[in-house]
Amino acid sequence: MQNGDQHYSMEDETYTDIDGKAISLECQSHSGFCREFTVSSAKVSIGRVMAYTCAVWLSAYIIFFVTENTAVLSSAIIITLVGMMVRIHFVKVDHETLLIIGSLGVQVSSSYASGRESTDFIEMGKIKDIVINEAIHMQTVIYYLCILLKDPSDPEAVSSVVPLFQSSKPRLNCLVKVYKSCQEILAKC
Amino acid sequence: MVLKIFFPQCCNKADSGLLVGRWIPGQNSAVVLAVIHYPFIPGQVKQYIHQVECSGVDLTVLGSWSMPKEGQEGMESFLRDLSTIFPQGQWLQLSREMGKIGFRCHVLTRDPSKSPFASQVAPIVFGTVCQSEPLFFLDKYDDGPVKMTHWQSEGREGSIIVELMKQASTPVCLLTTWILTLWTSLCSSRILNVRPMRFISSKLSTCVQLSYRTEHLQTVCSPTRATAHNHFMRKANIFVSFFVDVSLGLLLVSWMYRENRIGKLADTLVPAADYVAKELEELLQWLMGAPAGLKMNRALDQVLGRFFLYHIHLWISYIHLMSPFVEMILWYVGLSACLGLTFALSLLSDITALLTFHIYCFYVYGARLYCMTVYGLSSLWRLFRGKKWNVLRQRVDSCSYDLDQLFIGTLLFTILLFLLPTTALYYLVFTLLRLVVVMFQGVLHLSVDFINSFPLFAMGLRLFRSYRLAEGVKFRVLCEEPGTPLHLMMDINPLKVSSVVQTYRTPTYSCYPKDSWLALCKKLFLGELIYPWKHKTTKID
Fold first, then answer.
1. CB count, 10 Å around CB of B444?
2. Is the ipTM of this complex over 0.95?
3. What GO molecular functions are on record for this protein (chain A) (predicted)?
4. Choosing among A119, A126, A189, which should be mutated to test the B contact, i.e. which has the most B CBs within 10 A?
């Protein structure tokens, strides 16, 4: 590539999320003080979609066979379509990005399976630190990367916590890599 | 700290010239507002900048911009010499070559100074652009001493419909305000303000809706211009929802009056009331027998049953007395649906309330009877155990009764206890009927409230012109060549659709449940009268 970025992705098999599913991490260094991390989860699996659709339609046909009411069939079709649309537009996250720009701020963005992007930008003046926290999730202890925000009235206190990579939920090895990179940039400015 | 320069996209293709803008203090950042093109006379430029600064815009010369075309070889040296003509602390030299996308940036610093860190860059950037309106009146197509390129040189965004509406709004607003003042003075006149009228008008939801809409119109048609963003959005939302409401109402009226459907509706109203009365009579006959296999106290049962049956008979007589006038009344009252769909719904709610008034009466009788029974029972139960309610101390104290007090008390207790199933059953049946009517009215009120408060204008703006409602900014890294500084594209991040409704909701007298579920159940058990939907007289946000 003719641009000046360094662009490298880690081996896919090394990184998994907390449930054991494979994810991939891509680090892009645009300049000395600007880096972008993208964590991608597994895409929508065609096998699961077909299985759900067949199950719903089979049960709809059985009910139609018993009741002889065509409204059952049309409602099954509508439910399947609407459910699929809602899932890919609002629920299924394709990849999550963290863009850290030294002395400007941090941008967190989630991209859904339908292409919709939801972005949030946090100014550097509000960020106290980026840390890895532990949390108890059901019967396990998991690690998550989060941004600590400053309280405007008291610069020493933490007013709120913004967790990152909430849908992909990568494991500690992936988080440590992102954490080290971010700390290098935060230390510079 | 890293130097940040905010550069408008339009100046990317502009000819070479002088950069003017503003330095953001404490941030090591600069906002470029315009590019003044070559050729210019430095004296005239200084005069122009001074003139613009006097009208309140904070403006300085930031540096030079060069995009050399063929035949402009002497440009570079000329632009370098400019830094001596316009003395500044920091001088930016941005340049771009034809065919390349990235800029090159060179900073000449005269006196370096460290400044403390401050937050919130993006609002300062947009604030600067907003304040610099006088700067954007001239552009490179005007004949003036300076020729500039800025973000409005390609033309301002406008729409003919909006301009026409702005012209037409002033006389229309004045007319509407005058009509509204007449109407409000009529409403607050002495005749209409006697106690019974006020009580009735506070109970009828149509009158409440009418007063509410008057208030809305007063807000919209006030002759003063809206200055704050919130105020403007509220006026726009009220106007759009009123417009949609009235058009839906007119549609409904045209549909109902087309094939005399209103006449048919009026014809079915009296038979419907008759049907409800007949069903109630059958219900009472069932209660007077052995309802659900329960054995009632015969005498009390007959008394209550006959009392309610006579009540129904009276009600039906009144309805039949009014039946010749029903069609005419409904025809004229139905015309008020022209004022909006909300009026039609409030009207429906009021008609339901009036037609089911006997159910409300039955509920009140049954509830009072049951309430008295329960209180009597609890008080006599305390007597049975030798205790008494101390009103002063609000607690139960022991008390020694005389023998005859105990005797009569126990007798009354036994009587009330054995009559309890009968009164409880009547109470249960009429409470259920009342709750059904209340649920129906509640649904109507909720939909009226929804139409009143939903911000249609804000939702439309978010869907079609999302850059006007901003939540923040977002950045995108642009691909570039090595050796150039980092280029980021800053875009407006529009407000999320879910937060549009929360932010721009019109405040309204929403009817919300007055008690929690637990308190409601407790009241039902004790037989206290319930008014589940409470209309607040003051507005809540």
1. 20
2. no
3. glycosyltransferase activity
4. A119
